[in-house]
C-alpha cells in the first residue's frame, strides 16, 4: 500500500517558507499557538480532549504535580500529604492560595469539587474517589472505595480544584464561558470553538509549576495543518504541534523555526461495535473484526504519517504503561488475502459498507479507509468535531470509529484499557471476564496486577475488540526564539517557557 503525500499542501507550505516571518511573540511577550481541535466546553470535567487538558493545566491546579525531572508526585496546592490507611489520603493545603476571582482556597473547595465530580455523570469520570472529608479549613482527606495503586497519578492528572461557591452558582456552562481557577494564567477572553486568551495571574502562588515568564497566551482552533504552518512562517503563530513527517524537513529549513520531537503515551486505535449498540452490524461477528485487523497496513501508514519515534502496537494500551503486557497480545499481521477469506467465511464475500466516524488526523483516517477498501469494506467517513463524536460514542451510536487516546497522561494500564473496557458508556464490548480482571487488578500486589492484566489483554486481542494501530511521536514546530521543552505526557507547559531575547 502506498500513502500519497498531498502535493498541493506541500506547495502551499513551500510558498510560506519564502515569506519573511514577523516576530510578534518576543516583542510583546505573548505566545500564539494553535491546534486542530478544541472542546466545546472547556470545563475540565466536561471533555476528554487533549487541547482542553492543556488549557486546564494553565487555568487550574491540582493537589499534586508530577516533577518532570524525577517523575515523582509532589505537593502543589497541598503543602504535604500522607496515607492515613490504604484507602485514605490526607492533604494539608497551602495557605494564601488565591483563585482568579480573589477568593482564597480552603478545604471546602476541595470537598465541593470531589462531591460534584463523584455525584454527577461527566465525560471525565472520577471513578477513583469515593468522597472527601474536611478535617479543618486547610486539611482534607480523600477516600477511595478500595485499594487503587495508581491513585497519586489520578489525583495529579485528573482532579483540578474548583472554587466551590463560584461553581455552585455558574455550573459547567458558566465555568466554560468564564473559567476561574488558581492556575498560572487566567482567562480574559473565550470565543467558544475559536479562541481563548489568557493573561499571567499576578497573584499566582507558584508551587511546583513556578511563576510564568510569558505574559499572554492565545490559543486558536485552526483545523487545517497547512494554514497553521503558513501562519507559523508568517509570524501569526509561535507554536504548533502534530507536524506531519513530510513537513518536518521543510519547516526545519527556516532559521526562524525550530522543529523538535517528543515521545508520548498516546495511542491510535479503531473502535468497533462488538455488542451491536449502534444496531445490527457486521462488527458483531468475530471473523469480521479479525479481518479488519488483518486488512490494515499499519506499518506503511505509521511510516508515512507518524514517522520516527512511533511504533506499531498490538495491545489495547501503550507499551510504556504499567500493566501493558506486550507478549500477552494476539497479533494480526497485515494480510489482505486472509482478511478477504475471513470476510467470506463471515458471509461477506463482496465486503460491505458502514459508517466510519472520525474527529482528528484526517490523512491518517483516509489511509486506514484505503486499506479497508482494498478488501471490500467501504467506510463512509463521518468527520465531526471531538465533542460530537464523544457524545455519539457515549450514546452507543458508533459502528466503527478512529480514536486517539493519551490516557489523560496516566502511565498505568488503568488509563487506557482500563478506561475503554470497564463496562462504562464507552465500552463497546462489555466482556464480563475483562471487567472482572480489571477489578482483580485493583490491588497493591503488582504481581497479581500483572497476572490479571495479562489475561485481560489476551481476551481483548483474541476477541479483536479493537484494532490497535500505533503510538504517537509528536513533532513540534515553533519560533526559534522560544525556549520550550517537550514532555512525554503530551501536555506542553507554556508556563515554563520563555522568550530568549538576548
TrEMBL record:
Residues 72-422 form the Solute-binding protein family domain. One of its GO terms (biological process) is peptide transport. It is found in: Periplasm. Pfam families: SBP_bac_5. Keywords: Signal, Transport. GO terms for cellular component: ATP-binding cassette (ABC) transporter complex; outer membrane-bounded periplasmic space. GO terms for molecular function: peptide transmembrane transporter activity. Residues 1-24 form the signal peptide. Belongs to the bacterial solute-binding protein 5 family. This is ABC transporter substrate-binding protein. The lineage of its organism: Bacteria, Pseudomonadati, Pseudomonadota, Alphaproteobacteria, Hyphomicrobiales.
